[in-house]
Every structure is written in structure tokens, then in C-alpha cells.
Amino acid sequence: MVWGGITAAGKTPLVTVHGNLMARQYIDEILCPYVVPAIHNQGLTFMQDNAPAHRARITNQFLYENNIPALHPSPPYSPDLNPIEHLWDLLDRRVRMREPQPQTLLQLERALHEEWDNIPQQAVQRLIGSMRLVPTMSGRHPFKRTSYTLLSV
């Protein structure tokens, strides 16, 4: 499995996660080194999907204690509301177009990292910009609009 985040200003490094991602590992290996600095340095709002590690009580407590503004919970089965889902699709297509195709997990990991690094920031900005007017659930304002200040994972 891989993890990555996007903003209108850039992509995070692609992080390879071996095995199932547990909440404590998610906090230690992803949120602390990548999400917290991006949120605090750039004033972003955090958006993630409904993966179990993302929904865990310890994860939500961590986000709260670290003043991470988050759009959640995401509606279930709504990948179209998260711009990174479209980037995962683009990454998948880029890897599938490679010749020769990766034959081992190590080759696949390398291909994913190379293609992630080669996705132009303009493509990321277009995806985020296209999501700007998608209604999202947000507390008392159920149809508050998203903005360019978003870290999507």
C-alpha cells in the first residue's frame, strides 16, 4: 500500500506502507512527519477517506489535540468527493502504461514512486480546482464549499 497527500502547492512524498496500516503507525509514520507540518505551515484543512486507521478513535484524538482542521467524517462510498482519489486513478493508469510492466513488488513500488514524482503539479491543481464547488458535510453548514486550502490524502 502507498500513502500520499496533495495540496495546490505540491505533493507529499509517496510513502510505502508494508502490511495493514494501523492507527498508531498512521500517526507515527504519516501524520506526524507529513500532515502536521503541512497543515501548520500552510494553514490547510485536512481531508482523508474512511480507511479504518483514518477513522480510529486514537487518530481523531490526535487530530484534535494537534489542532488539525479536518473535513470528516467523509460520506461513505464517496471517493468522488476527495480529489486524491482521481490522482490515484491517474497513478494507476500511468503505471499500467509502463513497458515493461513491473513483475515484482519491488519493481511495482519503484514504478509507483517514479510515476508519482512525474505527475505534474498542474494536474494536481486541476483536480483540486475541480473539487472546489463540490458540497461536503461540515458541521452546522452541511453544504459548506471546499477551497484550495486542502491537504487531501
TrEMBL record:
Gene Ontology terms, MF aspect: nucleic acid binding
Domain of life: Eukaryota
InterPro entries the record matches: RNaseH_sf, Tc1-like_DDE_dom
Protein name from the UniProt record: Transposable element Tcb2 transposase
Pfam families: DDE_3
Record domain Tc1-like transposase DDE: where: 3-99
Gene3D superfamilies per UniProt: Ribonuclease H-like superfamily/Ribonuclease H (3.30.420.10)
